[in-house]
Amino acid sequence: MLSYFVRHRLAANILMVLMLVSGVIAMQKTPITLMPNVSVPYASFNINYEGASAEIIAQDIIYPLTENLKQNTSVDGVSAYLRNGTSSVGVKFALRADMGKVVPEVQRIINQFNWPTDVDTPTIMQAEFLEPVGLIILSVDGSVNSLRKIALDAKQSLVARGLADVEIWGLPDTDIYWRPKLQQWMSLNQTPAQLVRLLSGQARKSSAGIIG
C-alpha cells in the first residue's frame, strides 16, 4: 500500500484531507459538558451492633453477608472496616454495571439477610462523584485554635453556598486539657500520679480491623 501512495501522490493528499475533515466533524459531535453525569461503581452502608465486638460482627454478619452479596454477578468485591459496635461496608461493582439496577438488587439481598434482633437493616447508598473545584490555603499570625475556627467558619459558609463537600487538611488533632481549680483538686484526695492512673483506667480498648 505504501508503494501505491508513492506512485499516486494525489490519492495520499485526498486521504489526508478526508481524515482531517472526519476528525473535525467527530470533534463537533462529541458531547461536552462542564459537569458530566458520572456513575461511580461503588456503594456503601453502615452496620450498628451495639455491645458486639469487632470479631463477633465479622463472624456473625460480615462473612456470611459477603458471600450473599457476591452471588450478584455485578459485585466485584466487598470490603469492611470494623470496630466494636459498628462496621462500614463498601461494595465495589463491575465497571460497566448498571447502578440504577444493581443497587436495588443488592438492597434486596441486604433486606433478606438474617440480621440479629439488635441490628436494624441498613440502607445501601451509592457513592457520588464530586469534582474538585478549588483549593484554599489559610494562614494566620496566631494560634492553631484561631486558624481552626477560621477554617471551620469558611467550611460552613461554603457548604451554605451550595458546595456538596468541603474537606479540611493540615490541622492537628484537638487536645483536651483539664485544669481543675485548687479546691476541686484537693476534694479528689488524689495525687497527680494517682489521678493519671485513674484517668488512664477509663480508656476503652476497642478492637478494629479491615476485611476485603
Question: Can you describe what's shown?
Answer:
This protein is an alpha+beta fold and 212 residues long. Among the domains are: 1-32; 42-126, Multidrug efflux transporter AcrB pore domain like (Alpha-Beta Plaits, 2-Layer Sandwich), CATH 3.30.70.1320. Helices cover 43% and strands 14% of the residues. It is built from 7 helices and 5 strands. Strands 4-1-3-2-5 form a 5-stranded antiparallel beta sheet, with helices on one face. The longest helix has 21 residues, at 9-29. It is flat, with a radius of gyration of 29 Å. It starts with a helix and ends with a strand. 9% of the residues are buried.
Mean pLDDT: 82
What is the β-strand count? 5
Q: What's the arrangement of strands in the largest beta sheet?
A: 4-1-3-2-5
Distance between the termini: 54 Å
The CATH C-level name of the domain at 42-126 is Alpha Beta
The total of helices stands at 7
Q: Quick one: biggest sheet?
A: 5 strands, antiparallel
Model regions low in confidence, pLDDT < 50 over at least 5 residues: none
Radius of gyration: 29 Å
Q: What CATH architecture of the domain at 42-126 do you see?
A: 2-Layer Sandwich
How helix-rich are the residues, as a percent range?
40-55%
